[in-house]
Design a protein that fits this description.
There is one protein chain. By secondary structure, the protein is an alpha/beta fold. It contains eleven helices and 13 strands. The chain has helices spanning about 20-30, 45-50, 60-70, 95-100, 100-110, 110-125, 135, 155-170, 195-205, 240-245, 265-275, and strands at about 10-15, 35-40, 55, 75-80, 130, 145, 180, 185-190, 220, 235, 250-255, 260, 280. The strands form three sheets. It has a six-stranded mixed β-sheet, with helices on both faces. A five-stranded parallel β-sheet has the order 3-2-1-4-5, with helices on both faces. It starts with 9 loop residues before the first strand and ends with a strand. About 40% of the residues are buried. The model has no long low-confidence stretch (mean pLDDT about 90).
């Protein structure tokens, strides 16, 4: 029996930071496919490029990226990993990027989802198929149901519902994808600093006794924005998230199944079980 994806063309991974690009590359290799990493200089980890085909790309060098994607036979392209949103003035532009500047300027005039959708349009106009992680390697998304020994109690389930409602309400503003809810109160939402900073803020508020709920109460809720292009910028869950939840003295994590990335599932579940936290994948 052939492996899933075997015989298909190479996949270009435009890689920022974090563990996810390497996890996706490994999953593609297990399918018998050939990943080619286009590592963004200053962001991509060396572990992602080690031992596999790769090219280092500076932000703003769109022409070079497109030429290399074609030379490597990458009909499919996936955008992965963490990246600090640059100012247009910080980019070292080549001629192809300059030609795309009107579209890029329009894309920069919005939130991250607006920016990524605009960038995707440029790739697609050049004949590339922009795909999402959940389409390429669905095994790297959170499954439906409880992943840990401990599950949410009734209070936590109310907090989960409250968090999902809050995130849906904020979707129109294209901001964060996470919220912390304690005893049915939204105490913090994700901003440009990301989930780790959100959890550190909650831990600080507890230390300052601005949050007085007992330890073990409250939930980190993560969900894509309503109407988001699910090929890009999906919420992610990793061991560092679990560490942040523990330090924030919350009860657990609730994410949307099939729409949340999970690069190290065994490590996440083991860390959550050691800390007595729950991790649950909610129906979309």
């Amino acid at each position: 029996m052939s492996k899933r994806g075997e015989g298909l063309g190479a996949v270009g991974i435009v890689a920022g930071g974090g563990a996810l690009p390497d996890a996706v590359a490994r999953s593609l290799e297990a399918q018998g496919r050939r990943p080619v990493v286009f590592a963004i200089t200053g962001y991509c980890d060396n572990e992602t490029v080690a031992g596999r085909a790769h090219h280092w790309i500076e932000l703003g060098r769109l022409g070079r990226l497109l030429r290399l994607l074609r030379s490597e036979g990458c009909g499919e392209v996936v955008l992965l990993g963490s990246l600090v949103r640059p100012a247009v003035s910080e980019l070292r532009l080549d001629w192809r990027t300059l030609r795309a500047m009107p579209a890029l300027v329009r894309a920069f005039r919005g939130g991250d989802d607006h920016l990524l959708t605009g960038v995707a349009g440029i790739f697609e106009s050049e004949g590339f198929n922009l795909v999402g992680v959940r389409d390429l390697v669905p095994e790297l998304t959170v499954p439906t149901g409880l992943a840990t020994r401990r599950g949410p109690d009734e209070a936590a389930r109310h907090d989960i519902e409250r968090g999902r409602a809050a995130l849906v309400a904020m979707s129109a503003f294209d901001v964060g994808q996470a919220a912390v809810v304690i005893d049915n109160h939204v105490v913090a939402v994700e901003d440009i600093e990301g989930t780790d900073a959100l959890l550190a803020r909650v831990a600080r508020l507890r230390a300052e006794q601005r949050i007085r709920a007992p330890a073990g109460r409250g939930v980190l809720v993560k969900t894509p924005k309503a109407g988001q292009d699910l090929r890009f910028d999906l919420p992610a869950l990793g061991p560092r998230t679990i560490d942040g939840v523990m330090k924030a003295q919350l009860g657990g994590v609730a994410v949307v199944a099939g729409q949340t990335l999970l690069a190290e599932p065994e490590a996440v579940v083991a860390a959550a079980d050691r800390a007595g936290l729950f991790v649950i994948g909610l129906p979309a």
